[in-house]
Amino acid sequence: MSSKNIRITLLFLLVTVFSFAQPRYVTRDGHISFFSEAPLENIEAHNHLVVSLLDIEKSEVVASLFIKDFKFDKSLMQEHFNENYLESDKFPKATFQGVLKGGHPIDVTKNGTYQVETDGKFTLHGVTKEINIAGTLEVKDNAVFVKAKFKIAIRDYKIDVPTIVVKNIAEIVEVTVDLKYSPQKI
After folding, report:
1. What backbone phi and psi angles, to 5 degrees, belong to 29?
2. Which is it for strands 172-183 and 143-153: parallel, antiparallel or unpaired?
3. Which CATH class is domain 3-15+25-183?
4. Pairing status of strand 71-72 against strand 43-55
5. CA 158 to centroid of chain Cα atoms
6. Alpha helices per DSSP H over the chain
7. Residues 34, 52: contact at Cβ < 8 Å?
């Protein structure tokens, strides 16, 4: 099965999580990056193929990405990331499923910016953890933009770092989320 077919199948499976209530929004090319600041070397990678669904009415969000879609400036870093640390053949995806929390309802009929939090389950490297992510949700011209930053401890996800390279990789990694959703009618 080709990578494109896998993504389409994944999106279809994510869509089935939601009922047919509106308004729902989708992205197939969302952006998530991470940054690791370490004494010897900073590491940064970007993934522009994040699939996500956002159901405003139910305040639910799901997102999924393939680990191998992260791109690095240095090909050797990418190879080590996939083979030695994230073991992307064994654990090919990272996922998030959560619920938006907030004090006021989001009005998708007019432009506006909302401070939001999500409580959910983040799965990485075969480990699922409860996390809380704070960010902004902006409604602009019939699209929804979500931006957030959060940190994860790699040990929480059983990512082993050999002692010989421990100064090359930070124990805490900052994750940046930048998603643009479009209306989706199913």
Report:
1. -135, 40
2. antiparallel
3. mainly beta
4. antiparallel
5. 18
6. 3-17, 75-80
7. no
149-to-65, 82, 105 alpha-carbon distances in Å? 17, 23, 22
d(CA 74, CA 14): 32
Rounded CA gap, 84 and 47, in Å?
19
Burial 2-35 (b: 16+ CB within 10 A, else e): eeeeebeebbeebbeebeeeebbbbbeebbbbbe
pLDDT tens-digit map of 116-156: 999 999 999 999 999 999 999 999 999 999 999 999 999 99
Question: Which residue, among 181, 148, 140, has the nearest Cα to 28 in the 3D structure?
Answer: 181
Q: Which residues pair with 124 in a beta bridge?
A: 127
For the chain, strand residue ranges (E) read: 24-36, 43-55, 60-66, 71-72, 93-101, 112-124, 127-140, 143-153, 172-183
pLDDT in tens, 58-92: 999 999 999 999 999 999 989 989 998 999 999 99
Domain positions in the chain: 3-15+25-183
Mapped onto helix, strand or coil, the DSSP state of residue 16 is helix
Q: Which amino acid is at 27?
A: T
Instruction: State pTM to two decimals.
Output: 0.84
Q: CA-CA distance, 15 to 60, in Å (whole number)?
A: 12
